[in-house]
């Protein structure tokens, strides 16, 4: 009997293809990472992008988790930079009357012991959320920040749904990309766009040909 893949291979194979971190990305376990970048979101529903050192696309915390962050660290996002979060999938998070799962903060650095806060759970009901202190030994020590050019390229690839494939081909997350990796990722994006454009041209030509033939076989 032979097994040619490991746990990391399997975990990578079930990652969602998205421009943001989702609850389903943590089916295999929680993530712990240092906040390396915070930017404005594109919509009122998702006004904040938080880039963690442990993942290749940003987390866009919902209103509930933004309230938790404020309870943990205050209202100035600049003060959050460099701090560490542990986030996990909560299968009981509901939407539209169904449990669809959501991202929840489980642990944080720069707190003492634990922090509890009462939050809205459903109409007229509140529930207590408790976030525990991340032990010093488990605090993410990542001190690098991703280069703006690398981040822009990664964001562009993610927006098109290509970042996971680029990371798989290169073998490293964007924060670890060397100049050669950056060039390879850029070439990957150009090649992928050319493939899609060529497929669109072929589809258009086939559609015209079908129209001219009247659809006859």
Short characterization:
This protein has 217 residues and is of the alpha+beta class.
Can you characterise this structure?
The protein has helices spanning 7-13, 63-73, 148-159, 163-170, 179-213, and strands spanning 31-40, 48-52, 84-90, 94-95, 98-99, 102-108, 114-122, 125-133. Helix 3 packs parallel to helix 5. With 217 residues, the chain is an alpha+beta fold. 34% of the residues lie in helices and 24% in strands. It contains five helices and eight strands, in the order H-E-E-H-E-E-E-E-E-E-H-H-H. The protein is globular and about 70 Å long.
Descriptors:
alpha+beta; six-stranded mixed beta sheet; two-stranded antiparallel sheet; 5 helices; globular
Annotate the secondary structure layout.
Blueprint: H1 7-13, E1 31-40, E2 48-52, H2 63-73, E3 84-90, E4 94-95, E5 98-99, E6 102-108, E7 114-122, E8 125-133, H3 148-159, H4 163-170, H5 179-213
Parallel strand pairs: 6-8
Antiparallel strand pairs: 1-2, 1-3, 3-6, 4-5, 7-8
Helix pairs in contact: 3-5
Summing up helix and strand content along with how strands pair, one would put the structural category as alpha+beta
**Number of alpha- plus pi-helical segments:** 5
How confident is the prediction overall: mean pLDDT?
Answer: 86
- Spatial strand arrangement across the major sheet: 2-1-3-6-8-7
Largest sheet: 6 strands, mixed
Secondary-structure element string: HEEHEEEEEEHHH
What is the CA-based Rg, rounded? 21 Å
The low-confidence parts are none
Q: Give the tally of β-strands.
A: 8
Q: How far from one another are the termini?
A: 50 Å
What fraction of residues sit in β-strands? Answer: 15-25%
Query: What best-fitting shape do the alpha-carbon axes yield?
Result: globular
The percent range for helix content is 25-40%
